[in-house]
Task: structure prediction
Amino acid sequence: MINNNLIQKYNIAGPRYTSYPTVPFWNEEGIAYNDWISTMKHAFDESNATEGISLYIHLPFCEKLCTFCGCHKRITKQHGVEEPYIDTVLKEWKLYCDVLQEKPRIKEIHLGGGTPTFFSPENLAKLINGILERAEKCEEYEFSFEGHPNNTTYEHLETLYNLGFTRCSFGVQDYDEKVQKTINRIQPYEKVEAATLNARKIGYNSISHDLVFGLPHQTKEGIIDTINKTKILKPDRIAFYSYAHVPWIKGVGQRGYDENDLPTAEEKRVLYETGKQLLGDLGYVEIGMDHFALPTDSMHKAMENKSLHRNFMGYTASKTQLMIGLGMSSISDSWYSFAQNLKTVEEYQDTVNKGIIPIFRGHLLSEEDLVIRKHILNIMCHFETSWEDEAMQFPELEACIDRLKEMESDGLVVFTENGLQLPEKARPFVRNVCMAFDLHLIRKQPTTRIFSMTI
Result:
């Protein structure tokens, strides 16, 4: 168990580093449309023939608001929104294909949300078939989707499997009824069991469950019960996320309960340590931050061979230089730049229907950004980084090292001759280590709270 004094000392607001620079520190003037197109095409030309590209498709609709959720979504029970939205996504994809000219080779597709399984199996088939009409699949491709256990039917699973999907993740969060009621996510174990067993029966080779610690009214006993139920189903991967309480950003949803209902920092760390210990006892290996996998899963193998990657979707077992985000609010990454789509369904659809790729903000990375991005990726994915190579050095490196001296004295960082490593006990503090390298955060300390707590 980690020393409570360290938790109190380092439990500060900080980014989760699914990108560097993090979104609040993107260029204030945004990214010029032509700069995004230019860097996107450059990344495509560099990598399409060798590794292919990735697609993230945001499907934003949900029938109910889960009050813990921080995603961009639209709450509706009107399923008439499905086809117009898919038509727009396919039009956006055509706009990209027209710019790229050469046929894309797709290595990864991920359907996120919202609730992708809000959409009917027929409409999901229409979407994927429409995407693949303009592309080829790489020889080793991976298609994955996020499913809500309450509405992921056998037909959903079978349809997507027949389209090439072999990996799925189900949002479980917690099995405690009081917690579920508070976060407005009533979801019996039997629903998760049915979705998991159906996926396994159909042939999915990697099934993941998302669990969350730090939710309102969550207890150690509840975490033990949740892990024990998870033990029965034995998913290949588990994402054990820290709940990010940011009601000042997400508004009414996360104001559905009082902050006094949340575990304290010390209680939250007990929830994490308890869950981590139980998962370890079941044979799961900790991967990066918040993720666990069985040794047979590709994510564990990626960690071993140091090909683990982190992006706006979290950790992935492989990477492509270019990730194109389709749908409202999706974020694209060319390595050299980021671009985010418009955040409302109406603005997104209107812009695409005018024949314009619907980005509204982004960031063009500087040479300094690119170097620091590599360091932060190394720390987040491998718990180490090195500046032995001159290309990994930058003018403020010494200052970054100095900022970590106190963490070194607390046993959370170990310096090597030309690099650093994080010991096992430091993994919960990985975001704090990355913050020492985050020159945007250091140069422009926010005057208002914009991040969740690191612990």
